[in-house]
Amino acid sequence: MILPIVAYGDPVLRKKGAEITKDYPELKELIDNMWETMYESNGVGLAAPQIGKSINLFVIDATPMQDPNYGEFKKVFINVEIIEEFGEKWEYEEGCLSIPNVRDNVKRYSDLVIRYMDENFVEHEEEISGMPARVIQHEFDHIKGVLFVDHLSELKKRLIKSKLINISKGNVDVDYRMRFPSTR
Hints:
This protein is an alpha+beta fold. About 25% of the residues lie in helices and about 35% in strands. The strands form two sheets. A five-stranded antiparallel beta sheet has the order 2-3-4-5-6, sandwiched between helices. The chain has a two-stranded parallel ribbon with strand order 1-7.
């Protein structure tokens, strides 16, 4: 089932996601719905807060963004913990399904070490680099109540303020389902 994406301005996007257990209600269905919603919205990642759930869960399919040498990068991340961020910080233009039609350069580390559970609650600890590391950092921020626009300079934040206000009021044109704070 395709779920509505929560728009900028909804308080759920600012809450820290709680850890979950393998007996979280209808977890498999939730993950399936997140995949379907992400693909329908043309995203490469989707965090649970973006569908209104304050839990530590996100899905990523960074395959379309990767160098062909890396192959597929499609994973479910539950109870994620970033152990270390390292390497060079590099800029790349980011956007967010919850903040449509707003894009800007964000600096993030090139490498990280993470610990997480997959959809079967098997624990993994991995070192990840490049574009997958960037997407993970973006989605992990969602779990911590941080949005990519929080990484922008004060000047850039002032320049996009009216766009953010319009998004929070539902004054934005998108081709996927959204839930706006004023329609709750």
